[in-house]
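A.,

Following up on our hallway conversation. Structure tokens first:
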């Protein structure tokens, strides 16, 4: 049965596809359009199971020239882009307040008191951390065109349009599609960390700047209406941080100079945006009535609100222009720069209170309230920059220093000796670093980063994250580095526990840390801990990683309570299943009870930023989903797992880990198969994010980052890391005597149910027939059995999942998600067969394939498939 969603979205996709077809015909002629249309129809039939059409597609591509393959690849990648834009616009046009409506229905049904609701809202603290992992495959130039196109689709769906207006919009849509077709879709060079940061700022300027006050106004209105409760004026239920320009873990291009440049560019963008807001306000606030407090501030000015705001506009303009001059190498006068959030918030609050006192509530609660809320959420720094570095780099500083001072090698000391040294120096009044010390370049870079933190306002920074943290000394080392560099405020330092062993050891590490008197004094009752999702899943498989993450969080919550510390768990999720990706509501509600009390901090990466926050309506909808899920989880916490549930999930996780590692780590045929069956090696040539694909350039598969690891498997539709070993592990403990408990876990435990829900999504994106086609052409005969065994497990796993859920098909409970994937299927199918042809040609050509249309076509198919799958890494 076709839903309204299906029909309207399909009509839009067809319309955009037809417009692209006209563009192709105008450039290449009718013959080319007919050719592409025949391939599209073949792709649809192939997806529906027509083996003859699949063979015809393969044969068609075999006979094409390299340049013709490039043209076909570009056409289908563009079709998929247009399909995504249509879906994004459709989702934005849906009831953006549906999540908040659902929340209030739930609250009303539970008959909660206003006090309970007020308490939950007061604790609402969503910190979204924008990251630029190498997953955003679409060029910024095209993203701009796509945004314009989405705006046109929004406009053309207005029922009140007359024929002239409609024709004008259709002409603009054709114009934008033609622009995109004639634009190079593959970057010629990787973006720099500064490019990535600028893109993050643009998301705020073009979408979140409008969406945040709209979301807060909607939430406030519903609270008022239903419970006579208000969002406090000083509240910031959502805030934004960033890793772009601060995440130096394995990225040699993020230097102290880059970090400083990004900090200043963020301030410049904030100054630009607040100057526009304030200028608009001072134009509108022309009233003469004011209270005594404002009158005292502005004297006998005729227009008191304007008199207060105009100098503030000038300060923001001076800041904006001064930062431009400074970055251009000039020496600007900084005396008139805006330096603190209070300089912005105090005048705004003075105006607000005056308007209330003078009976102008409706004016106070208009544009002025929106600006106050932006000031609270974004501040003069726009967002807060996190700094991330590997623990080894900090240890190297002290190793080099202790050798220079003749104290031995810090790296060789015991953990007890390291802690004793660090504590002694943290309590010392004398400088630790000698003035004449000629440190190595790597050590200087770590110290220079700490000096940048010392030089800039604490309000411009988020937290300092230590990857590969495994001991208390890893955290204390950073605190000593910051202290010695002149950082005079307690910057929160968060260990990142990312491998399976790290997660299992995290409670022990945090207990030792919080047992140190000096450390408890430093954190002042607030601790951040980051939980890694992608590396733990890559290390041990999805089920073992998920359970380790759950247990780790549960134990950390208990330890925080024991030491009377507010714990904020920072979730390093990605957009994909293999990196912990789940629909927001399910992800939040499956957390352990109590884990949201200290706030909810989560990474938003690459393309998911665009899909969730790329348009104001989408952003408002996403913020509503987060807020409603967190409030709901705080007011109606999920049950703590029963002992028998724990026993079973622990057995499942251990079996899942062993199953996964038996293939990925211990089977000597796995790496050779992975290298030939996926485009992993070719991925390294695609200029995605600023960060290299491997932590160690000469390393093997173990050093491959989790993102390209998952990206490679998604390209072949085996999506292996997300499911390998999981259902076999579940089946191994689902004996007759355990069946009742397993069924109870599924019906009553959100954590367990969410694992199976993730698999449901994964299995819909997986396609054994496509994976088989890669093997058939690319895998040598002696390795073909390996792929056959994996696909056999995939098919078994799908059957096992359906037996548990009782459904007769995958994604039965998410028809919209299922239809979303199927709309793109006709365009995805040809790209896979095209990529197989290209991989075969490139590997046979060897070095001769470099910098040719063959290699460019390969990049286009990688990009197109990533776009069609709606996630990359």
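Then the amino acids I'd put at each of the 873 positions:
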């Amino acid at each position: 049965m076709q839903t309204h969603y299906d029909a309207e979205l399909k009509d839009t996709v067809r319309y955009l596809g037809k417009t692209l077809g006209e563009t192709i015909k105008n450039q290449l002629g009718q013959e080319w359009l007919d050719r592409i249309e025949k391939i599209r129809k073949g792709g649809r039939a192939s997806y529906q199971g027509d083996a003859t059409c699949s063979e015809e597609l393969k044969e068609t591509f075999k006979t094409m020239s390299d340049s013709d393959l490039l043209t076909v690849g570009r056409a289908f990648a563009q079709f998929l882009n247009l399909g995504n834009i249509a879906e994004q616009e459709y989702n934005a046009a849906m009831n953006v307040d549906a999540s908040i409506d659902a929340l209030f229905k739930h609250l009303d049904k539970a008959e909660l008191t206003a006090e309970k609701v007020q308490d939950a809202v007061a604790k609402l603290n969503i910190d979204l951390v924008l990251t630029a992992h190498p997953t955003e495959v679409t060029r910024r130039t095209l993203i701009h065109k796509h945004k314009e196109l989405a705006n046109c689709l929004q406009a053309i769906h207005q029922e009140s349009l007359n024929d002239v207006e409609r024709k004008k919009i259709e002409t603009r849509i054709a114009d934008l599609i033609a622009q995109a077709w004639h634009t190079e879709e593959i970057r010629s060079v990787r973006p720099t960390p500064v490019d990535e940061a600028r893109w993050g700022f643009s998301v705020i300027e073009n979408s979140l700047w409008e969406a945040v006050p709209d979301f807060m106004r909607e939430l406030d209105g519903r609270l008022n209406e239903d419970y006579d409760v208000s969002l406090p004026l000083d509240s910031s239920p959502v805030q934004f941080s960033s890793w772009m320009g601060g995440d130096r873990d394995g990225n040699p291009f993020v230097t102290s100079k880059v970090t400083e440049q990004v900090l200043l560019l963020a301030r410049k963008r904030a100054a630009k945006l607040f100057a526009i807001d304030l200028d608009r306000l001072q134009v509108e606030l022309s009233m003469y009535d004011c209270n005594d407090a404002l009158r005292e501030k502005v004297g006998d000015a005729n227009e008191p609100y304007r008199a207060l705001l105009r100098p503030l506009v000038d300060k923001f303009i001076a800041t904006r222009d001064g930062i431009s001059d400074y970055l251009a190498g000039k020496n600007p006068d900084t005396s008139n720069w805006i330096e603190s959030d209070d300089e912005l918030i105090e005048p705004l609050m003075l105006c607000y209170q005056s308007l209330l006192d003078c009976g102008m509530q409706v004016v106070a609660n208009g544009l002025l309230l929106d600006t106050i809320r932006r000031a609270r959420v974004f501040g003069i720094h726009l967002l807060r920059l996190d700094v991330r570095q590997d623990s080894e780099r900090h240890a190297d500083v002290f190793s080099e220093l202790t050798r220079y001072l003749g104290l031995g090698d810090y790296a060789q000391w015991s953990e007890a000796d390291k802690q004793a040294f660090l504590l002694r120096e943290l309590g010392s009044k004398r400088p630790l670093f000698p003035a004449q010390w000629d440190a190595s370049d790597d050590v200087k870079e770590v110290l220079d980063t700490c000096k940048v933190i010392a030089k800039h306002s604490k309000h411009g920074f988020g937290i300092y994250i230590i990857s590969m943290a495994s001991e208390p000394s890893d955290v204390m080392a950073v605190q000593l580095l910051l202290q010695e560099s002149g950082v005079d405020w307690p910057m929160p330092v968060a260990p990142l526990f990312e491998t399976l062993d790290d997660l299992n050891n995290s409670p022990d590490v945090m207990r030792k840390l919080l047992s140190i008197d000096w450390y408890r004094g430093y954190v002042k009752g607030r601790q951040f801990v980051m939980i890694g999702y992608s590396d733990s899943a890559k290390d041990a498989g999805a089920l073992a990683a998920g359970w380790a993450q759950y247990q780790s969080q549960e134990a950390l919550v208990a330890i925080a309570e024991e030491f009377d510390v507010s714990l904020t768990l920072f979730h390093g999720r990605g957009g994909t299943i293999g990196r912990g990706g789940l629909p927001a509501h399910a992800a939040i509600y499956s957390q352990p009870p109590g884990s949201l009390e200290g706030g909810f901090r989560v990474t938003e990466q690459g393309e998911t930023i665009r899909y969730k926050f790329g348009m104001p309506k989408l952003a408002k909808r996403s913020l509503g989903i987060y807020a409603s899920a967190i409030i709901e989880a705080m007011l109606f916490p999920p049950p703590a797992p029963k002992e028998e549930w724990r026993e079973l999930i622990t057995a499942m996780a251990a079996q899942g880990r062993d199953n996964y590692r038996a293939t990925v780590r211990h089977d000597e045929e796995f790496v050779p198969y992975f290298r030939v069956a996926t485009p992993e090696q070719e991925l390294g040539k695609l200029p995605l994010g600023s960060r290299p694909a491997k932590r160690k350039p000469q390393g093997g598969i173990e050093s491959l980052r989790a993102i390209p690891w998952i990206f490679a498997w998604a390209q072949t539709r085996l999506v292996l890391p997300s499911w390998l070993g999981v259902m076999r592990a579940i089946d191994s403990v689902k004996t007759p005597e355990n069946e009742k408990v397993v069924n109870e876990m599924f019906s009553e435990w959100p954590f367990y149910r969410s694992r199976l829900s993730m698999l449901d999504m994964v299995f819909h994106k997986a396609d054994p027939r496509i994976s088989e086609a890669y093997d058939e052409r690319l895998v040598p005969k002696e390795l073909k059995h390996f792929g056959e065994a994996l696909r056999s497990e995939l098919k078994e796993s799908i059957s096992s999942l359906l037996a548990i859920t009782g459904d007769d098909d995958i994604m039965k409970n998410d028809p919209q998600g299922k239809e979303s994937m199927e709309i793109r299927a006709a365009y995805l199918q040809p790209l896979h067969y095209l990529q197989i042809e290209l991989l075969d040609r490139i590997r046979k050509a060897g070095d001769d394939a470099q910098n040719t249309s063959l290699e460019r076509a390969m990049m286009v198919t990688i990009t197109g498939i990533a776009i069609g799958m709606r996630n990359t890494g």
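The chain has 36 helices and eight strands. Curious whether your intuition agrees with the design.

B.
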